[in-house]
Amino acid sequence: MLDTRPMSGADFASLARDCEDFGFDLATLHPDHPSSSGVRGAGESLEVWTAATWALAATRRLTVLPDVIGLPYRPPGVVAKMAESLDRLSAGRIVLGLGSGGDDKAVAAFGLTVRSPSEKVAALQEAVSVIRQLWGPERAVVTFRGDHFALDGASINPAPVRPIPIWLGVHAPKGWELVARIADGWLPSSLALPPHDAATALRSIQVMAQDHGRSPGSIEYAYNVTVFVGNPALAKVQGPAPTFAGSPSHIADQLLGLAESGFTVLNLWPAPRTAEQPRLLAEQVVPLLRP
């Protein structure tokens, strides 16, 4: 993970290149809270899409995923155009991560729409529909009337050069059903959904996908999992306890268990965030995971 709350003096482009040089396949950017007035958005933060552009421009192989775009902060039609442009410029190295909410206090501070939990899920469904329609055939013109979004003869040109994956960062049953019906991937976090619960939810999504006539294998099952290579007691002193902490072999065993439960992408979040943790993960943990 590339933290958009940068360490003092950190060179974000260098951090992205380090991820690529370490051999990681995917770099995620988190969080997406543009306001320091919110509870979760307090403190310094980069704008996540600008940071994603910077990371892609600094690398050649790395796939980049905003983890995740907060739906209230940008109209979905604008997100569709942003993703098309950046995917084209990066030669297909973007995954679009979308979340239904954000920090409600920050949303209100910017004069944006604060939605109830059920409205957030409904708006997310509409947003995916808007984006996919705008990514349709070249010169497609889209008119859309929903409860949360509306388009009137909108189009974006050129059309995407490939189907850009949309992964949804959702942590509740209504969101899982949405993944099963319309998403290319699921992206929960261990801080919100512990491993056992996440594995149970994954199986539910697979069943629901079959019920909707989809192959469960057509969905990527990603997991943001907090890890710390080293003494677990030290990790707790420096911040919230990571999901997995300890020796490289211990962490690798736990991560392999996640893969056996069905997760196809493991996004390792160093917790606490230190300069040496990505290197330790790349050199001591990842080799134990690769075939």
Could you write a compact summary of the structure shown?
The chain has 291 residues and is an alpha/beta fold. The protein has helices at residues 12-21, 48-57, 76-89, 104-109, 117-134, 173-182, 195-211, 232-238, 248-260, 277-289; strands spanning 2-3, 26-30, 63-66, 69-70, 96-99, 142-145, 150-154, 166-168, 185-186, 220-229, 244-246, 265-270.
Biggest β-sheet description:
7 strands, parallel
Q: What coarse outline follows from CA principal-axis ratios?
A: globular
Could you give the distance between the termini?
A: 22 Å
Report the mean per-residue pLDDT as an integer: 93
For the structure shown, list the relevant keywords.
291 residues, alpha/beta, TIM Barrel, seven-stranded parallel beta sheet, three-stranded parallel beta sheet, globular
